[in-house]
Design a protein that fits this description.
Number of strands: 20
Distance between the termini: 45 Å
Strand content: 15-25%
Shape: elongated
Helix content: 40-55%
Largest sheet: 11 strands, mixed
Number of helices: 16
Structural class: alpha+beta
Length: 593
Amino acid sequence: MGLFVDIAKYQMEASGASSNGSSLMRASRNDETVKVIVRCRPLSQQEIGQGHDRIVKMATDRGLIELRNPKGSNDEPTKDFTFDAIYDENSRQIDLYEETFRELVDSVLNGFNGTIFAYGQTGTGKSYTMEGSAEVAEERGVLPNSFEHIFAHIAASRNQQYLVRASYLEIYQEELRDLLVEDAKQKLELKERPDTGIYVPNLKSTVCKSIVEIRRLMAEGNKNRMTAFTNMNERSSRSHAIFIITIECSEMGADGQNHIRVGRLNLVDLAGSERQAKTGATGDRLKEATKINLSLSALGNVISALVDGRSSHIPYRDSKLTRLLQDSLGGNSKTVMVACIGPASYNFEETLSTLRYANRAKNIKNRPKINEDPKDALLREFQEEINRLKAMLETKKKGGGRPMTSSGRASSAASSGTGDDDWDGAQRRMEREREAIENDANLIESEKSRLLSSLQSRVDALDQEKRAQQVVAERLKKIQESMLGGDEEALLGRTRAQNEELEQRRKMIAEQKKREREMQEQLEQREESMNEIHSTVTNLKQELEGRQRRLKKMYIKLQKARMGLEDARISSSSERQETENSVTELTKELKLK
């Protein structure tokens, strides 16, 4: 059995989410909603040079985003959205991971399925958020930080065995491609089984034993990914990419039996939505953009159907992207969506569309569960093969197939193990026996030939036995090396480093609490002043003014609601027109073929 395995057997051990069952899942008490965060990049030098204004205001402490319409009047209210967490241009990669993604990766290590996917307009920092720069520690994105997290957890584990595998694929113009094979342009199929759900046959899955190995895999896959220059991005992703990490853990249960948990982490970097007028896409770039927008539109339709309680059908089959993400949206997975936006005024429509997209997604409900003891766990197969190989070696140690000496006794080389010294000793004894036969003048020639021929047969049998045991021992070593566990010295070193990091974080928290107390004191002083002022407000005129203010606020809220409905209608009409244009272009293209 090779260490490169077909992911078709293992990719979807515990999925099985179907469109017919989504409405039932939403009613379960074990449901949890998709976690949605928003990240806003800074204004680029080009945008500053062109005189674009910042139209995004973020209150990170409240998760509130206020979007201003640059073409609206001064008294036009902002469009407000709230999310689980928001990050402005000053946010750090490590803070994003620690606060938002660490908990999800911990869940995957405990046997849950998890998905992290980045969505947004092209050029808003999706790839930077997901990958960043592996060489610069401060700029490492979700993928490299999750690698560090996973292998650090394994090294610190006790009485557990782990097997980590990785796969990397892309969806380019609705075609599935394996990014880890030599012929990365070879098309893959997408299939479904009643017991396991959606899977990709022949997708390469590689066992990874260290951070270095899994980073190398990611780098190899990135070389094969489709990217190109557009007016919005020098290195624009022209495909959706999914990096899949499967983690199997074996642990002794209370019943005295080994139990295996299998978690799968899907790290999804979606291609950005595009408008041809801004990207300047033509030819192949335009075809790519059309396919990208169609698949993202299908994803939006799935999200809308999931949050609409009246929908009995979820259109997962409308694109390969939505079929692959079927488990992540309304199925057996913990999911975090990162919506990336730009703050520039000329991107108002795209930013508004992304925020609405994300606002709908936060209402999706999944039903995650631990994937325990799947029948096709690769770790179990490895454990069984290790036991079989050890039994083979033990049988040989006890005398099975041992070469015999000229006196008919079993050779001690086999009975004492498979060490090189034992084999060399047996060979030396046979060599001495050969010399004794050749130098024995009392033996007639025919008898001497017979003894030498018999001796040569034993020498050949000894060599064959040695090679056979070496093959078994090497195979056993290779499998054992692929199964990971904790390391005590490394654990102590990491513990010290973590204690230092925790101490620094405690100092930062203490300083932050001090500032919060000072702000609270200032707030209380202001409230006291306000209370004194309000105590003097007793006449009817002031009461009337208060009512008028409340009425004005209610009127503004009504205005916002009406504008939101009108914006939604315009956006829906625009999206419908763009989809129709895309279908027209594709129809023309098919007719030309």
